[in-house]
Write a structure and sequence with these properties.
71% of the residues lie in helices and 0% in strands. It is mostly helical. The two termini are 36 Å apart.
Amino acid sequence: MEQISRSIRSGLSERLVRFVGYGFIGAFALACVLPFVLVLSTSLTTERSIQTSGFNFWPKDFTVFAYRIVFENPNLVVGAYMVTIALTVLGTAVGLFLVAMTGYALQRPDFPYRNRISFLIYFTTLFSGGLVPFYLLMTQYLSLKNNYLSVLLPGLLSPFLIIMMKAFVQSIPHAITESAKIDGAGDFMIFRKLILPMTTPALATIGLFIALGYWNEWYNAMLFLTSDVEYRPLQLFLYNVITRADFIRNSSAASNVPLRDMPLESMKMATAIVATGPVILFYPFVQRYFIKGLTVGAVKG
């Protein structure tokens, strides 16, 4: 009888823990979803309604005027999307390959200069050359002004991602590499046939970081891509749309739309939806690998 009562109490406590845990996770998930719902609702609300009633989770005065202004020139929007997608795909593929090779090489015990190179990589996280030397390097020495390579090249390698990849590859026994060498495999074949398949979680996580970096890139594009370039990355294009709308609203030169009706706030939310929509659709496909990759280097008890 005592054993039965203990099992009942254990079952009740387990249910209570699950109830509290699921309730907390549900509340946290709701707190993450509600801001996005608010952004979407605001993007579909008239500017006058925002000024009088504030932000609401359901649009009171429904309108798509903000999206009409954002997509006023569809060719530029499609071109911006194409440029951003091309930079994201190419930069993620090349950057992921370089980060994976660098992390693999730096964890090899038989690589004589791994500690020195690792220190130099880590040193760049503490100090940088500054904006002026970086700008002169890209424009004067590399001649990449108005060239998409000026946006692509800086994001290929990241010290944080290299350290992250190195930590993950260190969890793979070095005996696998040694046995493959005994069988006659070369270093590149070992890396391609053995290391890469075993580092899928880390590759997915690092690839997501690189892809998000390229997708959200606007600063280097603003520095090196002038008006001579017809199509700019999506984030810079949307930034310019907001800047022009703000200028029109604050200028007496506005003629087509009354100043008070310029949907500046709803345009900001609309550009956020346009920029984050594809990322939200893509994230579920790499979510399980991303969660695994976040535990890289974690202490397990």
